[in-house]
Amino acid sequence: MTTRQHDSSLYEQIQSEERFQELKRRFRAWVFPMTAVFLVWYLLYVVLSAWARGFMGTKVFGNINVALIFGLLQFVSTFLIAWAYSRHAAAKLDPLADEIRHEAEGGADMAGTVAAGTGVAGAEAKDGTDVKGGAE
């Protein structure tokens, strides 16, 4: 894989494009609220551990208490958030990022545009498939 050198004006141009701004908006719309939710959940655990020792020490079954369950749920929630972000990125971020990257790498020819899913209706790729993916 070769790396092309670009001047800063290319990156400034990409950053100013509407699609890049949409990519940033989609990223922030998911990451910021999820970060806030997780921080509240984590701080709840810390606050309860510090100031509600009686509640956190309540035995649920055997030697398992509320604090241990909440602590383990911290790990579970971390993995669930990572899984959910992975799905979000694959569905909402990666396709748009791939289009932007493809154009930045200079592959804005018709075949590359069709392969990226952004071709013009009725256009035909080199392999004989149309934009919708069907063969002629």
Describe the structure.
The protein is mainly alpha-helical and 136 residues long. It has helices spanning 8-16, 18-51, 53-56, 66-104, 110-115, and strands spanning 59-61, 64-65. Helix content is 68%, strand content 4%. Strands 1-2 form a two-stranded antiparallel ribbon. A hairpin with a 2-residue loop joins β1 and β2 (64-65). α2 (18-51) runs antiparallel to α4 (66-104). The longest helix has 39 residues, at 66-104. The chain is elongated. It starts with 7 loop residues before the first helix and ends in a 21-residue tail after the last helix.
Mean pLDDT: 82
Low confidence ranges: 109-136
Q: Total number of helical segments?
A: 5
Distance between the termini: 33 Å
Order of helices and strands: HHHEEHH
Radius of gyration: 24 Å
Q: Mind describing the biggest β-sheet?
A: 2 strands, antiparallel
> What percent of the residues sit in helical stretches (DSSP H or I)?
55-70%
Number of strands: 2
Shape: elongated
Structural class: mainly alpha
Strand content: under 5%
Order of strands in the sheet with the most strands?
1-2
Q: List the quaternary state of the chains.
A: single chain
